[in-house]
Amino acid sequence: MPWKETTSMSLRNEFTALAKGHGVSMTELARRFGISRKTAYKWLSRDAANEPLSDRSRRPHSSPTQTTGTCEQAVVLLRQKYPQWGGRKLHRVLLNNGHLNVPAPSTITHILRRHGLMPDKDVSAQGPWKRFEHALPNDLWQMDFKGTIAIGEGRCDPLTVLDDHSRYSVILRATPDMRGATVQAALTEAFRRYGMPVRMNMDNGSPWGSPGGDSRGLSALSLWLVRLGIRVSFSAPAHPQTNGKEERFHRSLKAEVLAGRVFTNHAHAQQAFDAWRDIYNTVRPHEGIGMAVPSDRYRPSPRPLPEALPAIEYAPQDTVVTVLSNGIVKFKGNDIKVSNALRGLPIAFRPDDNQDGIYTLYFAHHRLASIDMREAD
What we know:
4 domains
């Protein structure tokens, strides 16, 4: 199967970066990217020989033979290419590109100021602060929309998904709306390529959850994720820091892609997103992961997307009840409101081993609520 023409270089760069890890076999990774093993090894061979993957590679290649003079000139050229990057990022990229005697980040900052390329107060000078980080790739993916941007034909709602451990941008999609079906289509494509995460975290609004009424935070999209065996969690209202890495990613996206740009249509926006995502994942050093690039730390998940939703199974001690069309279940002579989103699906009442009359409600592996049936008697 040929590469998609509009994103061929992004896919080739991404494939060669991921193939250097040990997340899945070469055969499985090639299948997920829609190419043959022969094509996969061809691109890996070219990459190992430092040959371009096409006539127009988006990946920058700087070397003493490509710069016309001193390392200071290389610093200036790199800053002009990536005007939002400060001394620490430029320092690491120069090292990654094979430059010798690279100046210290503070010296690079002075060079930029001498050339008028950095104001006296720059965002890169802010002090570091520590975030919690999951131990392995695909332990947690964070998901959100950037927020609506105007394009020539109407609106665009950039959908973003980020791996917590590596900061790898799994999805950056110029979607036309925020509907659950749109998100599910993007996630299906991502699951087929990267495998499935252990958990996903979103905010509690639509289409991820349903914060109002008796829905218990569930939506059709979140139920689909649960049925795939993915744990879902929701940020508390008014606490965006729960998805802090996503928020930081959105600031970078705004500063490096969206600011001052006008897109004529979704395809135009997606082209810009693909180019920047490739740079973000494989070139741009990230201070939160020790100035590594995300592709250095990311590995595809060994959990493939199943062809059909798995059957819903419960433990032998559970009492399984089907949710009625109005979102109510009948249990021990009582009507209990569960969730309209669960209508027609089986849920389980699991008794507490230590307290009679206390039950925990589950949908598949997802805990819904704790019910005290002693109060209903």
